[in-house]
Amino acid sequence: MEHKNWHQMSIEDLGASLNVDPQIGLTEAEAEERQQKSGANELSEGKGISPITLFLNQFKDFMVLVLVGATLVSGLLGEYLDAITIIAIILLNGILGFVQEFRAERSLSALKKLSAPTSKVLRNGKVMQIPAKNLVQGDIVMLESGDRVPADIRFVAASNCDVEESALTGESVPVSKHSRIIQQEEIPLGDQKNIGFMGTMVTRGTAKGIVIRTGMDTEMGKIADLIQNTEAQETPLQRRLEQLGKILIVVALVLTVLVVVAGILHGQPAVGMFLAGVSLAVAAIPEGLPAIVTIALALGVQRMIKRKAIVRKLPSVETLGSASVICSDKTGTLTQNKMTVTDVWQGGRHLKVSGEGYSPSGEITYQDQIVDLKSDQSLRRLFQISALCNNAQIEEVPAGDMRNGKKLLEETEWRLKGDPTEGALVTLASKAGVSPQSLSGLYERVQEFPFDSERKLMSVMMKHQGGRLIFTKGAPDVLIQECTYIMWEGKVVPFTGTLRQRVTAAGERMASSALRVLGMAYREVKPEEHVDSEQKAESQLIFVGLAGMIDPPRKEVRDAIATCRRAGIKTVMITGDHSMTAEAIAHQLGILPRDGKVLTGQHLASLSDEELDNEVEQTYVYARVSPEHKLRIVKSLQRKGHVVAMTGDGVNDAPAIKAADIGIAMGITGTDVTKEASALILSDDNFSTIVSAIEEGRNIYENIRKFIRYLLASNVGEILTMFFAMMAGLPLPLLPIQILWVNLVTDGLPAMALGVDQPEKDLMEHKPRSAKENIFARRLGWKIISRGVLIGLCTLGAFWLTLQAAPDSEGQLVKAQSVAFATLVMAQLIHVFDCRSSRSIFHRNPLQNKYLVLAVLSSVILMLIVMYTPQLQPIFKTVPLDLREWALVIVAAGIPTFLLGIGSVWGGRRNRRRLTTGGYTPKNTKFSA
Question: For this structure, is 139 an active site residue?
């Protein structure tokens, strides 16, 4: 019974196709029979995952299994504190992951809330109220202002009916509905003006319609199906940490076995070597890594909240840092979501209007000169029509008032009650000093002829100084036909063909700049005239002028997009708006380059996935798109290797937001469905906040790389100290308890302090890293190995030099082990400052990160406690060192960092010198005298 093009059918054909009389409706028996076949009119949530299963799934990760192994080893060694700590880390990570996934599973529940609980239907000739879930195809539904559309319906009657569809189509302005046939075969949802969609809201008027789709067959049902069948993407961070865990466990086990075997072969006791080997294994696997990652992400979340970005899923913070494409909704994100009049045309003059939003502050200028509005009667009339032929209200909310029930306003705000288009006209009039309040004592409304989608006009009759006036506004092409006079240079003159052409040309110029254009007209009503219809009111009018309005771009967004471009991030606009409007905004914001393409939903629907993949790299604007289109765009970009951030506020955005690598919902205008499907919520609905979040994400990832570099280089140094000693046939330079203490002292606080390090200055000047980038990319692996080898060699060198004073003395061996212990700790604590820069220790102020300075001082104090406290010396087998030995420790500990740091600085200067002294000449360089 389904028909693909319900919008093309006449009411008679519709009734025949669905076997129902629109004047009588179905009988109860027919409705019951149809419901048995089609099921209830409700959205299915599919097969859900039980909370217990969801919680247990958190412990399948490879790194978690490694941590479990580390827990068992710590327990066998009697290190119960370590074991308890690791278990706490595992449980914390599991709880965080469970909460995130459980909240994501609620997106379908939020979608179901959009369904109407009850519906007014015509059955057997009687109007009755029934549960909306009992509606069936063919039911006749009655709607009025405030009702939620209970199913997809084809209107058979509509009286001044406006429907708010922004959650589904992205349109910011309510759509005027009608019951006429639409001839085009394939048209976007936003243009199907004779169809109402489940979950949308009637904001004005009344309507009657036939149910054409119910439940999962509705457009809202299709979105529910997309959400169910769209898998959330594993983040790059999760993939990299899993990869890192596998590498670490293999390397740690191989090196540990080599150390144990080498020690036994060189005559070391087997039991002692086994304990040393197990200690090395525990040290080699940075069991604190997941905790430090979690802490770094959590602290990043706190910083992002201050920058108006609320994170719902911790790993998404890092994912933002690798975003290569941002797909952004237009309305409210790139633009202010406040219709604003920017241009006025009156009597051959083109005037510019300044000011933002609904604030009455602004200027009206002609040829850069402020217009004298008091002496200009033509303009005063235009502003009077703007203010009075209008039902919108603009309210001033003073600073300090509550917003959304919780947030205090920092500055005065002007808010709209009513239609955005009418709000723009009230604001225009207020800028001219002609507010509705200032006119209330002079003009009294006696009659209104509401806007109608067929007439495309609205008129009001006003009493004024004992007489009556008709004020009319509407579509210029329609209004011109009803005008016989025009206000020209302060006089009312006949509306000749030449003047009509000039008005039409002015309107077309405004429209070509993506402005929404409205015309204004008026006339005086004769004392004896009886005006009882629109036709009588809207005739013999005097044309006054045109007002052009647009939802203007946010002023800070252009700079944010330029920042993205420098950072190698492509910005794509995806909107339900018309292509001309979208293209104009994209040009203003710098989104659309000269060779960039604009693709409409209609064209996109005709492309195969392969054809779309060929177009997607050069396309920067997608206009008039549907939810399926948005999902296809995201998946196409992902197939091309991009890490995609997708923003949105409506239900229609939820599937694409869930499918994107990073889904971003609007905090102010966003629906609950979108928020539940997202990983990040913008509390100010502002695109520039996304750029701030990307910067934060990049910094967090670089900080994660910093502490991975630090932890692994330190661990490599520990293992190689033991390995080189065993291969050289030397005694153990470090005892098992000393290895565990080094691990505890150096791995904890300094690594966490690196996790909150300040970003480097050129952070947003680099291209996004590839989603496939190895965690050890950009020479990180070389830095870890080179520093680790030097730390191991220098520690062993200090041990050997101390041991040479009395090689066969047991007391000297303890002294040498104490020197090795101190050298290893100090080498790692000096190395931590080197990890702050991608170049060397000399490129950043070592005192800038105060947390790191405090962490290093704390670690030094802990080291000194076990060396100088008599009660602890027997336990840790340490002895105090004299000044000569401390000098050896400091020199040996500083060599790995400062030797390579000096080499890095010297190499950088040599490269710069080579570039500036002719050592390198770019190809095709032309020189002129």
Answer: no
